[in-house]
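Async update (no meeting this week)

Hi team, since we skipped the sync, here's where things stand on the single-chain job. The sequence we agreed to prioritize is pasted below, unchanged from the tracker. I ran it this morning and attached the output directly underneath so nobody has to dig for it. Comments welcome in thread, and please keep replies under the output.
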Amino acid sequence: MRRLMILCFLTMVMLVGLANGVWAGKSEASIQGPTEATKGEEVTLRITVSHSANTAGHYTEWVKVTANKKEVARWNYTKDQRPEGAVFTKVIEVKVTEDTEIVAEASCNLHGGKGPARHVIKVK
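Output:
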């Protein structure tokens, strides 16, 4: 009887965790690029997106990149036009004229995202 109660409890914990997305695959973005640039320079940034799946039912739905709160790049995906893979990289060029905060964010069609990635470029 005790084993049955423990098994029921563990099953409930797993079901509640799955229902709340505890083990769900959320999309996550990361940014690679220089931390310094000269005024007016175009810098190359690599935005890498990671997700647990890339199927018609579970995929990264969108990725957006902003520079000082202005959108500079965006990719939207559908079940029929998904990203290249569960992990993929986009390369963009951004002209910096002042200290610039780059923010990249990605979202899964089912579970959302893990939050924004931030990268600061100081103008020297």
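Quick observations from my side:
The domain at 25-123 is CATH 2.60.40.730 (Immunoglobulin-like).
Helices lie at 2-19.
Reply here if anything looks off.
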